[in-house]
Request: fold
Amino acid sequence: MATDVKMTPGVTLDDVLAARERIAERIVRTPLLASDALSQRTGARVKVKAECLQRTGAFKVRGALNACALLTPDQRRRGVVTFSAGNHGAGLAYAASQLGVGCTVFMAEGAVAAKVAAIRGFGADVVMRPTIQDAVQAMEERSANDGSTFVSPFADPAIIAGQGTLALEVLEDAPGIEQIIVPIGGGGLIAGIAVVIAAMKPEVRIVGVEPVGAAGMSAALTAGKPVRLDKVQTIADGLAAPFTDEPNLSIVQQHVADVVLLTDDEIAAAVPLALETTKLVAEPAAAASLAALTTGKAAVPVGAETAVIFTGGNVDLGRLKGFL
Reply:
């Protein structure tokens, strides 16, 4: 089986604070932008966390940099592997390139071309398999054979802690924040955010958002344990994780108020709305958080100061044109 980057069991606020120190020089401190247009439309006081402006175009680089910084000398020599729809792969490829570590990313055929090109552009190898489930299996076989270290897209404590640094910035920029809406793929981002919020401002209500066609966290919450999905199908490729894992599920069970489901049509409608109202390009995975707000599914009270997380902006121009 694949080996993981290890931290202390669980994830604490101290882990997130330590991660911020490790990665600060290599990330962008992205802005939290107030949107009058979205506030008027929804009745909430809306602020957009623009991780679409992050290095590599998505929040994923935060966790990847933290995980790579914690590799042992032997792990660095053997290299890292992962599976990804694209953004985690690009983040890990970038992080590995910064440290001179070899990186291989396993992906499903049909992955967004711009994301595949970005991963290769950072010097990583890409291995394609028919489905994301096949990609996971191939990655596990590679790691078992050559001893490379698996850096999970969402379940490793180092990844969760790195993603949690986003929440530190939100609280610093909006100390009165009352609601945070977070897209969920495997659950690394929402877990990291929840760790910080639970420790620093537990009255903040966190709402997770999943596509109907890739509802791994919802399935896990229903079952009380992680569930591997037989099929994932959604336009929000960044949320198309085939499962969540125990650390993420446990944190969500304890600290997340609700997880809501969106159709692809609802997500698609939010892509041009994001561009129109914020002048930011939000890939479908990022626009899901906006869709949860505008459809009312997030159940945000009128007047509540609300952070909407735009997790990334990596979308092919041709595909973006189709949404518009």
In short: The chain is about 45% helix and 15% strand.
